[in-house]
Design a protein that fits this description.
It contains 2 helices and no strands. By secondary structure, it is mainly α. The protein has one domain.
């Protein structure tokens, strides 16, 4: 781990588990949630924009 850097999770269950572990530790504080949608696509095709929208909904629901 590098101080001041972020860590990552590969699914909702893992993110929830990490958040619970952070909440149980008095020395840590969860300050945000981020995602990277760039691998989904970069065009304006409806399938791509729907997939990006779904990904953003997943982030919101996870938070």
């Amino acid at each position: 781990m590098t101080p001041g850097r972020s860590w990552g999770c590969r699914g909702v269950a893992e993110a929830v588990e990490l958040a619970r572990a952070i909440a149980a530790c008095p020395h840590l504080r969860l300050i945000g949630l981020a995602g990277y949608e760039g691998v989904i696509g970069c065009d304006r095709d409806p399938h791509t924009t729907d997939a990006v929208s779904d990904f953003c909904d997943l982030l919101e629901n996870t938070a």
